[in-house]
């Protein structure tokens, strides 16, 4: 804690994983002796840099850029780039640490990394976004590469930003390679990457429900956020026969008891980049309400909750509200959306709980498939990628379920995910010696 003072999110993420790993410590003295636990919490490398850019008024702006190359035991570093004013070292370290185990669970050879900046994309012109992305990549390009570190999107980094960053990398290095994932389809992107995290979340949730004699069909679902993950989780949950009744952004939430009209949301968020409250003016549904503030969304009665916005968005009180309203499953599209108190409420009330590093791994898994396609210089159809994603999510659920059972924690998929994700990386670290 002293070494990482001032980084509460990182300490929270490590504490959660290490608490789950207690039974592994008892069973695997060889991993303790190999110093795996001490080594795995220290990033292999952390890079911080200045990102200067000129705004539309000709004024110089300066942001701070980060790339944490956390662990390369099982493959090149892989993880997204977050652009949000709340970004600082502790956020990128927590995300990079989580990414190690998530990437391990995907069954693909990817190490853990994460990056970002405290740049706020909201309200910026296309030109400003482009100049920022070019400046960010001018420095980052020295540290990454298709066999070394392959960044992707995250909050604030979508197709547009990846395009600008890719263009600048190619220009600086004179090299067309799969150095970023989430690329446009005309220059090496993979079909189904846009949908992957939201779809994958629902594939995982469906497996978890099935294993417990339940399903999405006819259920009421609340989803937070209205970005990439939330939109495609809404799409797949609806295809599974559920009714999604709420979405949010950082200003407030909409409640549509008749079921969200997703085409309207896509037009507002993906095309016009406007706020979710616009939905009220656009939908043909009559009973829609918009409420300022985010946390109230968890007081809406639902069977299944899929938090898809940001870290620590469900606290103990919100979790209790979900339980009181009869919610029986929570699966995380966002990274670490539940506080430790919220997780305690889920587990002590017997909720089915799908933790982020398993439930939202579909995005990075499909990024892994994008890397494979780039290496082959070939691309698969949407159906091929989607089928592979579906298989991977089934396999992730199986790993969580099996590891939980093996360690006497049946039904605790959080412990199962942490243990299964950890063991693969830990074996590789032990085999490679003290590096
Ligand atoms: P986007 O930027 O596309 O969307 C984020 C959404 O969450 C926006 O609607 C945003 O609203 C909302 N949001 C942000 N902060 C808050 C808040 N404090 N309260 C309520 N809503 C908020 O990001 P993504 O959809 O890509 O990412 C969402 C989450 O999923 C993140 O935790 C990310 O790390 C995780 N994730 C994403 C993956 C991907 O493939 N995209 C893969 C794995 C995990 P606003 O517009 O107001 O900011």
Automatic annotation (TrEMBL):
Keywords: NAD, Nucleotide-binding, Oxidoreductase. InterPro entries: Aminoacid_DH-like_N_sf, Glu/Leu/Phe/Val/Trp_DH, Glu/Leu/Phe/Val/Trp_DH_C, Glu/Leu/Phe/Val/Trp_DH_dimer, Glu/Leu/Phe/Val_DH_AS, Glu_DH, Glu_Leu_Phe_Val_DH, NAD(P)-bd_dom_sf. Gene3D superfamilies: Glutamate Dehydrogenase, chain A, domain 3, Leucine Dehydrogenase, chain A, domain 1, NAD(P)-binding Rossmann-like Domain. GO terms for biological process: glutamate biosynthetic process. Pfam families: ELFV_dehydrog (PF00208), ELFV_dehydrog_N (PF02812). GO terms for molecular function: glutamate dehydrogenase (NADP+) activity; nucleotide binding. GO terms for cellular component: cytosol. Substrate binds at residues 78, 99, 102, 153, 367. NAD(+) binds at residues 197, 228. Transmembrane segments: none annotated. The active site is at residue 114. The record marks 154 as: Important for catalysis. Residues 190-433 form the Glutamate/phenylalanine/leucine/valine/L-tryptophan dehydrogenase C-terminal domain. Homohexamer. NCBIfam families: PRK09414.1 (NF006929). Belongs to the Glu/Leu/Phe/Val dehydrogenases family. This is Glutamate dehydrogenase. It comes from [Eubacterium] siraeum DSM 15702.
């Amino acid at each position: 804690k002293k070494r990482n003072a001032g980084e509460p999110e990182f300490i929270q993420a490590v504490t959660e994983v290490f608490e789950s790993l207690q039974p592994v410590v008892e069973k695997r003295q060889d991993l303790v002796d190999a110093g795996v636990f001490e080594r795995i919490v220290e990033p292999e490398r952390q890079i911080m840099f200045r990102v200067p850019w000129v705004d539309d008024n000709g004024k110089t702006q300066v942001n701070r850029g980060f790339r944490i190359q956390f662990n390369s035991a099982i493959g090149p570093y892989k993880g997204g780039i977050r652009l949000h004013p709340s970004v600082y070292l502790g956020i990128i370290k927590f995300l990079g640490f989580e990414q190690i185990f998530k990437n391990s669970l995907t069954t693909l050879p990817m190490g853990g990394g994460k990056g970002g900046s405290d740049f706020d994309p909201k309200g910026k012109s296309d030109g400003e976004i482009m100049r920022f992305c070019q400046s960010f990549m001018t420095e980052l390009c020295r540290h990454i590469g298709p066999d070394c570190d392959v960044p992707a999107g995250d909050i604030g980094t979508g197709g547009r930003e990846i395009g600008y960053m890719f263009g600048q990398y190619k220009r600086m290095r004179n090299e067309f390679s799969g150095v970023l994932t989430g690329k446009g389809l005309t220059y090496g992107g993979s079909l189904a990457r846009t949908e992957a995290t939201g779809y994958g979340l629902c594939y995982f949730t469906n497996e978890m429900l099935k294993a417990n004699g339940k399903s999405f069909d006819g259920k009421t679902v609340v989803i937070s956020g209205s970005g990439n993950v939330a939109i495609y989780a809404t799409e797949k949950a609806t295809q599974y026969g559920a009714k999604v009744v709420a979405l949010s952004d950082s200003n407030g939430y909409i409640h549509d008891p008749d079921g969200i009209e997703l085409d309207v949301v896509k037009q507002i968020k993906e095309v016009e980049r406007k706020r979710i409250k616009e939905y009220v003016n656009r939908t043909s549904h009559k009973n829609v309400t918009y409420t300022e503030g985010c946390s109230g969304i968890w007081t809406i009665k639902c069977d299944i909750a899929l938090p898809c916005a940001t870290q620590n968005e469900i606290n103990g009180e919100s979790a209790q509200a979900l339980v009181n309203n009869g919610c029986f499953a929570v699966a995380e599209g966002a990274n670490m959306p539940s506080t430790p108190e919220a997780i305690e409420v889920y587990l002590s009330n017997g909720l089915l709980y799908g933790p982020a590093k398993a439930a939202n791994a579909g995005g990075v898994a499909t990024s892994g498939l994008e890397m494979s396609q780039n290496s082959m210089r070939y691309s698969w159809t949407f159906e091929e990628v989607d089928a592979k994603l579906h298989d991977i999510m089934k396999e992730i659920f199986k790993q969580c379920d099996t590891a939980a059972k093996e360690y006497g924690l049946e039904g605790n998929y959080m412990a199962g995910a942490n243990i299964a994700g950890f063991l693969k990386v830990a074996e590789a670290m032990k085999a490679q010696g003290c590096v």
